[in-house]
Structures are given as C-alpha cells and as structure tokens.
C-alpha cells in the first residue's frame, strides 16, 4: 500500500467528536502523521471565525473553510484566499429565496464574518454576528456562503427547495445542521478548493495521492475526487454508499485510528 502525500479531513462529525472536541489521541496521531511528512489539510463547512479554537490540533498549514470559499492559514490565523459571490448576484438570489420559500431566515458569511437578519437564529456564538440587519442589507458585500434556515422544514427538504430556487447559479448542499441549507458561489466546493490547492503544490499533488475523510453530503465531491475515501460509521447514507472505505465513528476517533493503523503501524 502506498502512503498518501495528503490527508484531507472534514471536521464536524468526522474528525471532531459529537461535542466538538478533539481527543488527545487524535491530536497525537495527527501530529505523528505530519511529522512523517504527510500533509494534513482541514476541509470544512466551518467559517474561518470558528477555526481559532482548533489551533492546537497538532498540524500546521491551511484549512479550506466555508465549503471551499475561504482558504485560512492556521498559523497566521487569517484568510489568505477566497472565492466570493458578488453583490449583484447575491441580491437577486436572496430576493428569489425570500419570495419562493416563506418563513426562511437568512445569513451570510463574508471576509468580515457573519451577517444575519434580525430573525436568524441558530448555531451562533456570543458576539458572532459582524452585522445584524434587514435582509436587504445582507447583499452589501461579496460573500462566500449563504445560510438558509427554517424553523419547521427539515434539512433534506429545505436543501431540495433551495436547490430548486437557486438552480445552476450556485452550489447548494448541507452539512447536517438541523433545518439549515448552505449555498456557495458557483463552482465552489470542497473538491474544487482542494483540487486547486493540490495543483498549486510543487510538484503538483494528484488526486490518487490524496486520502479524504467525511460524513455528510457536502463532503461527497471531495470524497469522490480523492484517490481513496473514508466515511465514518455515523456518516450520511449517501456518503457511506460513495466511499472506498468505512471506518469507526467520530466519537470512536475513527479518523485517527485509521491513520494510525494504515500509516503509523
């Protein structure tokens, strides 16, 4: 078996335990894999503002955040590249969503952080919002992600409804959060961001040299792009059906145990 040059892993539901914590064991294994000369890159739906709490993972380098919209330097703790939806397209899309799906609440992620309309609530930390505003003001800056929440419509149905409205204008997916759909700029995804980063390396990293780990539909394109793909036992059924390998659940440190067994002996 040939070891990969790159290990790409999702965070929530995959590398992190259900409470959002990283075990000491996972931290130790990630550090050992990095010391063995294998690059570990984090590929996550999380916004950059949620990454600083994971600075002690035992790795260095980059994280691809916001489903690929933001490239974040873990050491410098700053966004170093981005792929954003311009304001004119954003304004039309927000208006279309508002009229097509009654009862939704909207927020956006941009370079400054989170902006949300007054009624938007959810997985927010104290002081999370850069701006709390009327929905029309959400289109005042380019963004890397639109968040669509509904208090009654479940995630899978909401994601399908949003996809119908958006069509080919953007990328629609979900990361398993309750009653939340996510929209990325057109052509932006975890796989696209990872492939672009891989092509920029010297020498370039081929897909066959990448192992990818994930659990949710927003990981699917990355998992199918990589040469070898792993789904944790708690993964979405679509993900379990798409990968080359099944591993223990996130709460059992499935990613770390797999890396230890296959790469560290």
Topology:
Elements: E1 6-9, H1 11-15, H2 24-35, E2 39-43, E3 62-65, E4 70-73, E5 78-82, H3 87-100, E6 104-110, E7 113-117, E8 129-133, E9 145-150, H4 155-166, E10 171-173, E11 180-184, H5 190-200, E12 210-214, H6 220-225, E13 228-232, H7 237-242, E14 245-247, H8 254-264
Helix pairs in contact: 2-8
Structure description:
The chain is α/β, with parallel strands linked by helices. Helices cover 29% and strands 25% of the residues. It contains eight helices and 14 strands. The protein has an eight-stranded mixed beta sheet. The protein has a six-stranded mixed beta sheet with strand order 8-7-6-9-11-10. Helix 6 links the parallel strand 12 and strand 13. Helix 2 (24-35) runs parallel beside helix 8. The chain starts with 5 loop residues before the first strand and ends with a helix. The model has no long low-confidence stretch (mean pLDDT 92).
Along the chain, the helix and strand elements come as: EHHEEEEHEEEEHEEHEHEHEH
Which residues sit in consecutive blocks of at least 5 with pLDDT less than 50? none
Number of strand segments:
14
Q: Share of helix among residues?
A: 25-40%
Shape: globular
The main pleated sheet reads as: 8 strands, mixed
Beta-strand percentage?
A: 15-25%
Please give the order of strands in the largest beta sheet: 5-4-3-2-1-12-13-14
**Structure classification:** alpha/beta
Helix count, DSSP H or I runs of 4 or more residues:
8
Radius of gyration: 18 Å
Task: Give the N-terminus to C-terminus distance in angstroms.
Answer: 12 Å
Quote the average pLDDT.
92
């Amino acid at each position: 078996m040939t070891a990969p040059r790159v290990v790409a892993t999702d965070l929530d539901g995959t590398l992190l335990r259900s409470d959002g914590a990283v075990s000491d064991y996972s931290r130790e294994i990630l550090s050992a894999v990095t010391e063995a000369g294998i690059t570990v890159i984090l590929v996550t739906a999380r916004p950059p503002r949620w990454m600083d709490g994971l600075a002690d993972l035992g790795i260095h380098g980059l994280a691809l955040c916001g489903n690929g919209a933001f490239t974040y330097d873990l050491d410098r703790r700053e966004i170093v590249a981005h792929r954003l939806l311009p304001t004119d397209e954003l304004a039309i899309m927000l208006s279309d969503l508002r009229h097509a799906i009654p009862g939704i609440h909207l927020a956006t992620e941009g370079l400054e952080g989170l902006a949300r309309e007054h009624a938007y609530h959810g997985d927010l930390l104290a002081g999370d919002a850069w701006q709390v505003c009327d929905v029309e003001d959400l289109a005042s800056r380019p963004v890397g992600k639109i968040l669509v929440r509904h208090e009654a419509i479940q995630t899978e149905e909401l994601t399908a409804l949003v996809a119908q409205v958006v069509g080919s204008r953007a990328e629609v997916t979900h990361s398993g959060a309750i009653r939340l759909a996510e929209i990325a700029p057109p052509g932006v995804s975890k796989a696209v961001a990872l492939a672009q980063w891989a092509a920029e390396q010297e020498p370039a990293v081929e897909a066959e040299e990448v192992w990818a780990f994930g659990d949710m539909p927003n990981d699917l394109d990355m998992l199918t792009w990589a040469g070898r793909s792993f789904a944790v036992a708690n993964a979405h059924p679509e993900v379990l059906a798409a990968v080359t390998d099944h591993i223990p659940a996130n709460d059992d440190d499935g990613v770390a145990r797999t890396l230890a067994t296959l790469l560290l002996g």
